[in-house]
Amino acid sequence: MYPLIISLVALLLIVMIGYNIIQQYKQKVETERRITVAKQHAVISEVDELLLFATKIPFTKVLLLVLKNRIRNALFIMVNMSPRTASYKEHFADTEAQIKQINDNYVAPSENSFQFPTNDKEAVTLVKATKKIRAVLRSEHAKGKINTNIFVSENRHLEIIQLKINLETSIKRIIQAKSMKEYSTAKQMIDKLLKILDSIPDKDNELLQKHRLLVDHQNEVSTYLSDGNSTSNENNHEQNRLKKENAKQKDIEMLFGDKQKW
Prior knowledge:
Blueprint: H1 2-51, H2 61-81, H3 86-105, H4 120-142, H5 148-179, H6 183-198, H7 205-226, H8 232-256
Helix pairs in contact: 1-2, 2-3, 4-5, 5-6, 5-7, 6-7
């Protein structure tokens, strides 16, 4: 009887160990499934947030399809990971229908429809959104979801939009500096913007107009400075103002500084 009892105990231990291994494996699979689904949820939420800017930034048809397909790919993974979840299947079907609608009927808005931000806060928000969209493009290109030609074209489109936002905001600050007789500050900003524009080989009409406007501002400011009209008091006032403006400039410099590629 003892050998039989020992055999049964050993068999029971093997069954218990095997059961625990199976349970641990199931828990591991479920944990990985939850992590994957949560990651895809985050991808969809991010893209949905970026799509809200379609009313403020002129999205091309290709760019809109890239973003919608990113949602579709995330939902495809979620459906495979959770095939019994009906909401995932419905969302996937709706997204495919939207992609078809875009392919068949979408007409991209003209570049002239772009509404420039009215203040620095809105400008920073738009530039951050544009940067995120460009990051999505890089990610999709790295995964082989879009070809290099599309990536280069769409990334350049967004890059130019960033530049135009920067120009519009900075020119307002230049005009403000001139009105305060802070000509040295205005000249610094003008020289910086002209340097950026001179490095752009494919300027469109709008950028050419901005270039001419900046040259006019530069001539006016240079004439004033060369005539020696600025007094030491005005220079001291300007230096004090620069110190006060430093904190306000920090966010914009972070977004538009020389380190950024235009």
